[in-house]
Fold each of these.
Amino acid sequence: MYSVKEIFFTIQGEGCNAGKYAVFCRFSGCNLWNGREQDRKKSICTFCDTDFIGTSGVNGGKFKNPKDLALKAISLWRGKQKPLIVLTGGEPLLQVNELLVKELHSVGFKIAVETNGTIKAPENIDWICVSPKENTKIEQTYGDELKLVFPQKKIKPKDFENLKFKNFLLQPMDGPEIKNNTISARKFCNDNNNWKLSLQTHKIFGYP
């Protein structure tokens, strides 16, 4: 059984795959915050900007098996290139397993996952993006993209440079300080050119 908040076709708005068409599958639940606003301040992650509670979103629901979920997701694909699915959350690796990976590949998807890195990813995922959060231990120590929301008080970009990722990105933390955070992130990337700047273009242009 897979609990999914929503599934939709869109354009990837951030990270190395920004601008690519993708089906987003947002899983319910997270291990760093329960999603309830009244509990945000006492949670491990306090700055999440996503609603991942329940299964009430567009095309959301409880899927009995991986085949049902894979068929629903591929039915939403509208691009002409190889289908791409982004597994996100919440924390998708609470639910994503090797059986689901196999079914998604069988219907033609290239699979990307966006995770906080506290749970090791199953084998054969095509693109792994880890977004570390302070006060956590990273278990997924390699992948294609490490995307750090910046700034966080208790962790710094250089804390992760020894990990085996192909790309290192800084993403300015959204909120009332977004302008200052963007300036700071840009300056850091300018001074440390192994880091790239990641902007949330979906918010700038107003799509999901």
Amino acid sequence: LGETTSRVWEEKLDYLRSLAGMAMLVTHPDYLDVPARLGVYESFLRHLKTQSHCWFALPGEIAKWWRQRDAMRID
């Protein structure tokens, strides 16, 4: 709250990537109710679009991947 740029989100994304982690973006319209806040969010989405080596997946796609992974066996 109170941020005027997407810098904090971008830094957190870099940190998660360094750990081979996952970032899940959940938004709520109550926090995107004024142009300034919406602009910060849009800036972050533009930043995400420039990132390579990312999998932009919907929750169902991630669940499917986990089910497939769980079914795998190593011989």
Amino acid sequence: EKYPNHSILGEESGKSGQSDKMWTIDPIDGTKNFVTRTPVFNIAIAYLENNKPVLGFVYNPIMKELFYAEKNKGAFLNGEQICVSKKDKLIESSVYFCRGLTDEAIKRSTKYYSVLAPKTLSLRQFGSAQLELCYVASGRIEAFYVNNFSIWDITAGWLIVEEAGGKVTDFKGAPMTSNSNDLLASNGKIHDVLLENLDASGI
């Protein structure tokens, strides 16, 4: 009602309207966790202008944790400002990932996993991309990667990581856009070595 000219893109409802001002909505990110009563899922909402997020919210109703950010105004968790981890060695870093759903996405993710697993402190799949991005932003983990995602899976978390001082690119190191197919988010300090390992994996 407030912004009738904005478009809305939702996982469940599809897209309505055509505008360079768009809201993405994922009512349940981490559906498998939700269905199996695993308390790792969230509600994610982001607002984009010209394909770049400028406002993002990620809420875990079980943990009662609300992560949010506005462009150039920092990132926050329940009102307290957050920032990325300061770890600068891959072997001391926790990296989370999402493998994607298609056969090709799984094959690519498996290649990277096999290269990266011996070089990290921990390499895990959480099953909730937006929360994993927020965990990078809050310094709980050092990096997260995903390929073959839908845009509503990452927009809020993408902004939150950047506003917390982290770095978000595609797998080639190029700046993220809403048309990117891959995402690598990190604290920035291990980003280059992660990109080197991505290249070495051949994906």
Amino acid sequence: RVVAFGTFALRYLPDVLRRLAATHRDVVVNFDQAEPADALDAVSGRRADIAVIDEYPNTPRRVDPEMSSFHLLRDRIDAYLPFEVDSVPQLADIPWVFEAADSDASAWARRVCRDAGFEPRVRFESPDLRLHHGLVVAGMAAALIPRMVFFGPTAPLLEPSVRFEWPGQLGQELHRDVYAVTRRGGHSRPAVAAVLKHLQ
């Protein structure tokens, strides 16, 4: 029983299941899509065996000490604009699209904007990063989009044309980390271990 957030599932789950079917025909996977906090609750409540979650810098998720986590990947995040700008203050005049206001992703995005020197004008909210991409392409909003949206085992979307070099500290790239989480000792079960192997 696997629970994962939408972008990861879209990009990686079909390929993981295809490879698992080739190596472990006896393992049956049930999947539910859920945001990371709900996914962790599902594992701790024994409604799922593996949760795939994301975590943003300086915004650690509270993980039950009875759980084990396995780092899967670091997903770089880029800023995309609907048109060119000449200075950081102009970023405050552009409409932005963020994830839901109560999400870790939104809290992180607001913090990096403020650290860069401007207050974002958030006009759109959605958990679906494909919509963020669509709003940038349509010229309606700026967005901070993880590369997972564009690159993965499945065919990539076309990137928006205006990528903005983020005005953070030199050498500090924007990113999130992705983990698989199980109950402590759960990874020793053969079926869970097989799924973890293909996730990794």
